[in-house]
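W.,

You were right to be curious about this one. When I first looked at the sequence I had no strong expectations either way, so I just let the prediction run and decided to look at it fresh. Below is the sequence, 133 residues in total, followed by the output.
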Amino acid sequence: MADAPVDRELESALARFDVMLAAIASDLQVEYFGPEVGLGAGAHVYRLVVRSHERAGQAPSWSVRVCTALPNAGWRAEWTLGGAGRLRKKVIVCRLPEFLSGYAGAVRAAGKAYTGSGMRITALAQRFGGTGS
């Protein structure tokens, strides 16, 4: 788990990251089913997912969400990065390099690596320690 405390600074950073990733996801419209972010024996139950998410009472929109990965759940969006609980936020922070690297790979595979948003996600992957290339 990440050693960083889940404090106001981290909460604020995750909220800003949510907004930034939503703008990138909306521009690229590339689905990516990322790493597991469940807790303990239930690690496989939740994953970071980029896609057009449907929320009750809202129009579908592209973003990254913590989604239920169980077969009967249909990738139901549960939380934003900043809206997850304290323990899950620590898992999310640990998984960000893997997530960004994988998302950058999905963007490359979709032929969108050289768009503005594609280059931005690649740069983020490199900055966070993922390959991004």
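Here's what jumped out at me. The longest strand covers residues 46-53. And, maybe more interesting for your project: The chain has a mean pLDDT of 91.

Coffee later to discuss?

I.
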